Amino acid sequence: MAGFRPRLKTTHNDMIIPSTFPVPGSSTGAHTRMDANLAEPSYEDKVAFFDEFDKMAALDQLDEEDDKLDEKERQHRDKCRQFFSPRTKKPQFQPKLPSPIKPPPHPLQRRTASLPASTGVNTPEGPRAAQFAKSRLGVIKDTPIAASQTITPVLKPTTGANTSFIEETPIPETARANLPATLRRSTTMPLPDLSPDGGAEQSPSASTALRKRKRQSPASKAIPESAQIFKGFSFYYIPNNDVARTRKLRIAKAQEYGAQWVRELSAASHVIVDKHLSYGDIEGIISANSNSSLIVVNEEYPIECIWFRTLLSPDQQRYRVPGLPIVKESIAVAGEASSSESPESEPSSLQIKEVQKPNTLESTQRNEEASAQRSSVAPEVQTPEAQTPQPERTSSDELSEYIELLNKYKDLPLDIEEDDSSSVKVAPEEISDPESASENERARKRPVTRSTRSAQKKTITFEDRFACNRGGTKVKAGEESNPNARTIEVLQAMCDYYTRINDHWRTTAYRKAIATLRRQITKITTEEEAHRLTNIGRRLAQKIEEIVTTNRLRRLDQANSEPLDKSLEIFLKIYGVGLSKATKWVSQGYRTLDDLLQKADLTANQRIGIERYDDLNTRIPRQEIILLGEFVKREAAILDPKIEILIGGSYRRGSDSSGDIDLIVTKPGTTSSAELVPFLEALLKKLYDKKFLVATLAALHSQSMGSKEPGSKWHGCCILPGKKDALWRRIDFLLVPETEYGAALIYFTGNDIFNRSLRLLASKKGMRLNQRGLYRDVLRGKGRAKVTEGELVEGRDEKRIFELLGVKWREPKDRWC
DNA sequence: TTACAGTATTT
DNA sequence: AAATAC
DNA sequence: GTAA
Fold this sequence. Notes:
Layout: E1 3-7, H1 27-38, H2 42-50, H3 55-68, H4 71-83, H5 107-111, H6 127-140, H7 144-148, E2 154-158, H8 164-167, H9 173-177, H10 181-184, H11 207-212, E3 234-238, H12 245-256, E4 260-261, E5 270-273, H13 279-287, E6 295-298, H14 300-308, H15 329-339, H16 366-382, H17 384-387, H18 390-395, H19 398-407, H20 421-424, H21 427-432, H22 437-452, H23 485-500, H24 504-518, H25 527-531, H26 538-550, H27 554-561, H28 566-572, H29 579-587, H30 593-599, H31 604-611, H32 613-616, E7 620-621, H33 622-639, E8 644-647, H34 649-652, E9 657-658, E10 661-667, H35 677-689, E11 693-698, E12 713-718, E13 729-737, H36 741-749, H37 752-764, E14 768-769, E15 774-776, E16 791-794, H38 798-805
The structure holds 3 DNA strands.
């Protein structure tokens, strides 16, 4: 996977490197940093951590811990370390570099603008160039270098992964690649400095260095209020005393971070169980307490929370007390999943990526054969006992497992002793979607996948690459919150951010990822687990893991604190204003809508968009959509009773509110939209007279002039007549002849991702889908550029189109992707 | 490195 | 032809 | 952003 790494350009293709700052990509700088971080920091850091108390106690404990420090824990630690890289440690050369070209590109332009930074705002570029610039610039988006560096970035291909150092680490990927695999992560970043000495002290180390550290008085500075991560919590320890030295230490430390040490279990919010105890040992103590919200964790939990200065998720496997019954939703869901196997329970979807099958188009027949197989396979898959015993999984091939571990620790089955939910979760969809062509593949592959190892390469069938083949329902109202609710929430925030920023592709990528996450039955906790899901790649998987283990996402914090251009954000929401115009205005110094009204030259539509800015950016309640729709239908029926009007858009998908109201106008017997034009004109006139319509944004006019057809769509604004202060609403009419009704329905029902995936699928199958119909034998040239119109195969019947595409029928309400 | 849907309307 | 919208 |  080749990638591009941004470089700062000078004439000889070297970088401009301020001597005082280490620069990613600079071999010297990078290696220097790396060397400092290379040493496994565990001892040093742990000692730093305990230093204020008792060095020897710490050492003792460390020795003790060292024995049981298996690779798994090491991973976790590295993981967390990565998440908590102090951003301040990043090289800050940004302000130092002179910018020969100004103004610097707007942050948004860096991502999506069609105008490369150096070309200036008004230089139009071809779409290709724009795309080109965009994808490159997108890569360097958040880099300080890129931000201020308006020097034309020279993008040099490298063999490493392409972007990660920008976002995640100061160490260039290329440099990291040279490290032993097991160390790569740990080099990512130094630990947060917890010791009073601060970060300067915390770097290199050997156990010798550590033993030299001077003892410090415990009377260290108080932990600032903000760092009191345990504030409001009360810990009950088992055993609940501080006779043991290390436990005393831990208790004291927890107290320092705001925890209260309670002697009564009933008063506790957390139970911290000594690591030598299992649930059986403490059962008597705990079960006496009826407090169900009690959090039971092992002694590692508080330590690591402090370590990373945040509240980690207590329900992680590594904090679990051995033998503790799992009383979380995950198990409940899993159980429910394995029992509810209604063969057609709807949103069926596959979540496991599978090997691509080149052509599954006419695979419908293979269903029977596959289902036979499936029946023999599925039960095995679903039997919890089948895969629970982990020793078996590993014992068979322990050596290679271990070797692999050394080379690629990610492959270690982290959740090995986890409950079986992870294996069960795939089953329900398998049974639930017997008709899907891709089902066959799944049934076949799974056993193989399963028997080998958890770390399978991500695979997916041809069919399954298309969202239209998967489920997707509106966020089920009142539905028990998804196990991944928090993850989804955070990712949605990221998605919103990219929407604000007008980063089309990232926005849709996030939407897709969220959709697949939403379909998961179990909680996705590890990067590997996440990565196996469709539309979740390496970077999102990492983010997911970060969210799960730290309950937040640094990238989001960063995004939200970014001084994003408020003005641009505002302008982009004006009807008729896109990135191009908004950027231009901002660069001209306009900052508010008033500025625009007074100084900018606006098109008619833009003026409406500004004057009714708030109205048009307010969502329309479903109830009002109904009222508006009824009003139109009534008038239409008067004009021509044979006319049929249907409300499409998100309304048809069952949304509680919509951004606009979409009306599909048709009439039996019509074969072209032109036949409906006279009617619509009459209707519009009447609606204007009735004070229903208040503005026209796009009429059914010139379809690029000179052409024949009058056009088929009308955009405008309407209000609910009679009502005072009624908000202006966006309303669209689409004229559809009966012969194209099905295709139009698909088009106007959406959602957009569903439509696009449908169209993409069509095009891959040599067909073409648009609002008029499904065409076949479309010749396509370079890329997939259309050469031939193709022959219309179906337009009238929505379901037929699904069939012809080989897509299982979905009700409109299930078209949220 | 490229594609990521395909079209209608305005400017 | 580009920008914008759906 | 992901996937090919």
